[in-house]
Specification:
Number of strands: 7
CATH architecture: 3-Layer(aba) Sandwich
Largest sheet: 7 strands, mixed
Structural class: alpha/beta
CATH topology: Glycerol-3-phosphate (1)-acyltransferase
Strand content: 5-15%
Number of domains: 1
Helix content: 40-55%
Strand order of the largest sheet: 1-7-6-2-5-3-4
Order of helices and strands: HHHEEEHEHEHEEHH
Number of helices: 8
Shape: globular
Length: about 260
């Protein structure tokens, strides 16, 4: 049954994307940028509803009160494609740093360009960082919220963290709060996997880390608070009434935490 539901959800997920892009394209491109955000935010909400209705995966978010007004850096844990869109409904005017090749995709790339994202050439690391900082600074000056995934790539739940220094560099350059976000979505929507599992994705929005820390101290704190919360959410999932299948990284981490999977 889980295989059938996964197949149904994946099919509906991509149909939902295509249909909404076609239907709402005139409104999206004729509207002011901030008003046009209602289209991708509605798409995000509809995906969350589909996942609950088709697969049986619900969502619980703690700590919405920790989201500040105005500009800040949003730093979610990156475990799944799920976390690229799930937080959109709760962020006023986000801007993503992304590889420039995405802007070349017909229609999808035009959607990205409409929102004035920050495209970078990942093949040129030093130039890419300068472009990222320049674009991030402009976004923050406009009151927007910068989305950064501190590890840069998706990691399996429980895997040893590898936080990159880029987020610390941008933190030091911008002087705005950083909001860490922990979650366990990778257990229910595994990276590079077809399967989707029922249960409850739990997400914890942590108190902002205020500007002014030394970059190294900031990165250490960001990793510490995010990973501690992810460990707690991993344990909760393992002890839940209907736990999802645990990847080897999660099983190993649970053993290190003294919990049987």
């Amino acid at each position: 049954m889980t295989i059938i539901r996964s197949l149904a959800f994946n099919t509906l997920f991509y149909l939902n994307l295509i249909v909404q892009m076609i239907i709402f394209t005139p409104y999206y491109f004729l509207s002011p940028r901030k008003q046009a955000w209602s289209v991708p935010k509605n798409w995000a909400r509809s995906n969350l509803w589909l996942q609950k209705a088709v697969v049986g995966t619900d969502l619980e978010i703690e700590g919405l009160e920790n989201i500040p007004d105005g500009p800040y850096i949003c730093a979610p844990k990156h475990q799944s494609f799920w976390d690229t869109y799930a937080f959109l409904p709760h962020i006023d005017d986000p801007v993503y740093i992304l590889k420039r090749e995405l802007t070349w995709i017909p229609l999808f790339g035009w959607y990205i360009q409409k929102m004035k994202m920050v495209p970078i050439d990942r093949g040129k690391r030093s130039a890419a960082m300068k472009m990222a900082v320049r674009g991030a600074r402009a976004a923050v000056a406009g009151g927007r919220q910068l989305m950064i995934y501190p590890e840069g790539t998706r990691t399996s739940p429980g895997a040893p963290p590898h936080y990159k220094y880029g987020v610390a560099h941008i933190y030091g350059e911008l002087g705005v709060p950083v909001v860490p976000i922990a979650h366990n979505a990778g257990l229910y929507w595994p990276r590079r996997k077809f399967m989707r599992y029922p249960g409850v994705i739990r997400c914890r929005i942590l108190p902002p880390i205020q500007p002014g820390l030394d970059n190294d101290a900031f990165l250490e704190k960001l990793e510490e608070v995010t990973e501690a919360a992810c460990d707690e959410l991993l344990i909760e999932a393992a002890k839940s009434e209907n736990p999802p299948p645990m990847p080897p990284t999660a099983v190993q981490r649970l053993k290190e935490l003294g919990v049987g999977a």
